[in-house]
Specification:
GO terms for molecular function: isomerase activity; metal ion binding. Keywords: Isomerase, Manganese, Metal-binding. It comes from Pricia antarctica. The chain has a single domain, classed as Alpha-Beta Barrel (TIM Barrel), CATH 3.20.20.150. It contains 15 helices and 11 strands. The strands form 3 sheets. It has a 6-stranded parallel β-sheet. Strand 9, helix 8 and strand 10 form a beta-alpha-beta unit. The protein binds D-allose and zinc ion (2 copies). One zinc ion binds next to loops.
């Protein structure tokens, strides 16, 4: 399945006048305020987010799964789905694979397919939170943290295998998310679990190619409900430091206890040059993996404000790997991802409008009201015409979601794959 560029252009023509009118209005206003609009649009056009292979189907919940018709059943079809999202949004220029769910059979063919959609391979993800068909030892009581050396070895070996697979595809990073922890007090010894995890991560780190990065994800709870070995950014940061300079912390927005100040975490990590990757989503209660920006858009904007500041002022921090991490139960996954990408771009655009110089001055003068006004003024600006302009410039759709629907993409996918295809993944 491939979207014909011509069809996108035809749809764009229908709303081009409206777009130009709204773009001119906002561009004039921003220019008067000293903002280089072209610069902002170019930054939006360049901003690319990797789509996780596991979010293209309906993951469901532990209470059941309501399948979505036309789900991608193969890696090829997953790449096609990301290709469709990218054609419309011009923001999804990469895919993040999960091993063993996405092991390619024919590497050359997979790479060619991805290239034909202008998609690259972002971080590869290992999986030691489930027992796999070809493994002999169980991860029921942990993987990299397990007190049983043979289990740890198997988990380390799996990660090394994932690196090899990613390397053949052109990936440059490995993301490790561990479910390891304890469900009940006394079940594990905190110190030995952490010690073993550190040792295992160091072994994985030792097999990283020179130009690769290791991303260590943290999460306070779930699937374990008493303790998680890598529970917070501090633990991840400490482990990354113990591994070496190619190891970084990965921030997943859903992996914080309610009301945690994530923008402050982002700032600290960037100051220390250790923010490696990002998983976008939104949540109300826990790791809900909801559409980005659907619950707390102002918090997302504040996080982007910290990210923009860090990208401009912290050369010690590498350019972060942007990824979405979502799960779907009732929405068309592709529509949800299009909504998420729009929310990400919106928050980024608004953060780019923050007058950093004026904010700094107001901070120097302890003008608290002014500081808040500067942020809110940026956040209250309707930046959607800027996003449209960036997409148009790259050959995408002025209105990705409308175009997705009017082109009947889901119908085409169902016709091609059938109603009962099931995507592997969470
Ligand atoms: C799990 O909660 C983490 O967010 C992981 O990043 C991710 O969802 C998982 O690796 C997908 O299998
Ligand atoms: Zn995640
Ligand atoms: Zn998560």
């Amino acid at each position: 399945m491939k979207i014909d560029k011509q069809h996108i252009e035809e749809r764009n023509q229908q709303s081009l006048d409206d777009h130009l009118e709204s773009f001119d209005y906002i561009a004039n206003r921003l220019t008067k305020n000293g903002i280089e609009v072209e610069n902002v649009v170019q930054k939006l056009a360049d901003f690319q987010v990797a789509i996780p292979s596991w979010a293209l189907g309906a993951g469901g919940t532990r209470f059941g799964r309501f399948g979505f018709q036309g789900e991608p059943g193969t890696l090829e079809q997953k790449i096609d789905d990301v290709g469709a999202i990218h054609a419309l949004t011009q923001t999804a220029g990469a895919i993040s694979l999960h091993i063993p769910w996405d092991v390619p059979k024919d590497y050359t063919a997979i790479k060619e397919l991805a290239q034909s959609h202008q998609i690259s391979f972002d971080a590869v993800n290992s999986n030691t939170f489930q027992d796999q068909k070809n493994t002999t030892k169980s991860y029921k009581f942990g993987s990299l943290s397990n007190i049983d050396e043979a289990i740890r070895e198997q988990a380390v070996e799996h990660n090394n295998e994932v690196i090899k697979i990613g390397n053949k595809l052109g990936s440059k990073s490995l993301t490790v998310w561990l479910a390891d922890g304890a469900s009940f007090p006394g079940q594990t010894n905190f110190q030995s679990a952490l010690k073993q995890t550190q040792k295992s991560l160091q072994e994985i780190y030792a097999s990283l190619p020179e130009d690769w990065k290791l991303f260590i994800e943290y999460k306070p709870y779930e699937p374990n409900f008493y303790s998680t070995v890598i529970q917070d950014w501090g633990t991840s940061f400490m482990l990354a430091n113990e591994c070496g300079e190619k190891a970084y912390t990965l921030v997943d927005l859903g992996h914080h206890l309610p009301n945690t100040n994530i923008e402050q975490i982002v700032s600290t990590l960037m100051m220390k040059g250790k923010l490696g990757g990002f998983h976008f989503n939104d949540s109300k209660y826990g790791d809900d993996d909801l559409t980005v920006g659907s619950v707390k858009p102002y918090a997302l904007f504040l996080i982007f404000n910290a990210l923009v500041y860090g990208m401009e002022n912290n050369p010690q921090n590498p350019y972060p790997a942007w990824m979405i991490d979502a799960s779907h139960n009732i929405k068309d996954p592709l529509e949800d991802i299009i909504q998420s990408l729009e929310a990400i771009q919106e928050a980024y655009a608004k953060a780019l409008l923050v007058d950093q110089k004026a904010l700094n001055e107001a901070q120097q003068n302890h003008d608290v009201v002014k500081c808040q006004e500067i942020l809110q003024d940026a956040h209250r600006t309707d930046v959607r015409p800027l996003l449209q302009k960036a997409r148009l410039q790259n050959g995408g759709a002025l209105h990705p979601l409308k175009t997705y629907r009017s082109l009947g993409i889901r119908k085409q996918l169902v016709a091609e794959r059938g109603a009962n295809s099931v995507a592997t993944g969470l």
